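Re: the request from the purification team.
They wanted to know what the chain is likely to look like in 3D before they choose a buffer screen. I agreed to run a prediction and write the result into the notebook, where they can find it.
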Amino acid sequence: MSPKRKTDVEKRTCFMNRYIIALTTVLLFIAGCAGENKKKTVPSFQYFEISFEQDGAIVPIESHQVILQKKPFSIIVRFINPDSIFLNASFERQTQDELLAGKTDDEMPGFRGNGITEELFNKNDILNISKTNFSFWYYNSEDDHRFNEIVRQPDMLICKRNIAKIGDIDNSREPLALEKIREKTIYLSVMKMEWSDDYSKRIEKKRDYYILQFETAKPIR
């Protein structure tokens, strides 16, 4: 091969190498940007967030009050990771008043008592009511939780618990259809707590509350 032809080949080879390097750099940059877009977003809440759904629509929460018709609805709990909440549901407001006053869990009647025994997956669509006992709602895995439905998203777990019946724990009554209860208000007091290292006490991480106001369901025409 003549020196001139050899030089031309070397120039083309050098150009192709530079082109490949430039193209590779661009592709890596695009891939990096795509990876950034796929990163988890940071949820806007800590530990848990609660909402309410009825007839397939989210019900507004105004000043912690939720207006519902007296028929089945759902309580939706969002967790960032597998987690749990302590929840007291009562027809009386004493526990909620003390929660708002800043009392500790062992000073509030609704959290001093025992945890209510509840089945996995809430197969009977129950909300248990008590002045002195609490529910422990949690998600550990697909096989171990106390919700009807779980939706996994990249940045959170959406856990739905359907409510069609009310269990009166204090009076040991059989669960009653929501439409048949006489009371018009349920006070929900919610706490996120973790055990100390020696399991001697519960450590509060977050508290919240909701007042559920029930209106008589309108007849279907």
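For the purification team: The chain has three helices and 14 strands.
Please add any questions underneath this entry.
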